[in-house]
């Protein structure tokens, strides 16, 4: 019998991997009517960063996202929704969708539900380093 090649072969990396910047975020919500939540408060926490603020309106949420989350210093960060229940990424999308400065790209599940939202600046829509990901977590 002819010896078979191993199915997988380990290759050494050419350079060290960059650690992922991961921040957990969470919206506190209240129902407007049955099945329609409204964001009231936003919190976020990462290794070196904490954020908490009440949310008055969707325009206020937009301003807070641009000022504190979508900054050059935080570029490349993945924000994971804590207990998102598939709503948190929709809040982010609703706050930013009318602003022409941002390009939103959804990642959908097999059943066409929103799994994550990738945000780029409209003037640099293909950059891998100047992007932010808002993912629905547990």
How would you characterize the overall build of this protein?
The protein has 138 residues and is α/β, with parallel strands linked by helices. Helices cover 15% and strands 39% of the residues. The protein contains two helices and seven strands. It has a seven-stranded mixed β-sheet with strand order 3-2-1-4-7-6-5, with helices on one face. A hairpin with a 4-residue loop joins strand 2 and strand 3 (50-54). Helix 1 crosses helix 2. It is globular and about 70 Å long. The N and C termini lie far apart (49 Å). 20% of the residues are buried. The model has no long low-confidence stretch (mean pLDDT 87).
Number of helical elements: 2
Structural shape: globular
Q: What is the residue-mean pLDDT, rounded to a whole number?
A: 87
Tell me the major beta sheet: 7 strands, mixed
Distance between the termini: 49 Å
Q: Per DSSP, what share of the residues sits in E-state strands of 2 or more residues?
A: 35-45%
Rg measurement, Å: 19 Å
Structural class: alpha/beta
What is the chain-wise order of helices and strands?
A: EEEHEHEEE
Poorly predicted segments: none
Number of strands: 7
- The largest beta-sheet arranges its strands as 3-2-1-4-7-6-5
Helix content: 10-25%
């Amino acid at each position: 019998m002819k010896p078979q090649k191993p199915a997988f072969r380990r290759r050494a990396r050419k350079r060290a991997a960059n650690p992922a910047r991961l921040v957990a975020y969470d919206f506190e919500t209240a129902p407007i009517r049955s099945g329609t939540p409204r964001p009231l408060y936003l919190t976020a926490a990462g290794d070196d960063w904490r954020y908490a603020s009440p949310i008055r309106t969707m325009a206020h949420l937009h301003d807070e996202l641009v000022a504190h989350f979508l900054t050059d210093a935080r570029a490349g960060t993945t924000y994971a929704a804590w207990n998102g229940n598939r709503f948190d990424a929709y809040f982010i999308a609703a706050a930013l969708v009318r602003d022409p400065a941002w390009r939103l790209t959804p990642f959908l599940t097999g059943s066409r539900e929103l799994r994550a939202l990738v945000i780029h600046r409209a003037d640099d829509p293909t950059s891998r380093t100047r992007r932010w990901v808002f993912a629905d977590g547990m």
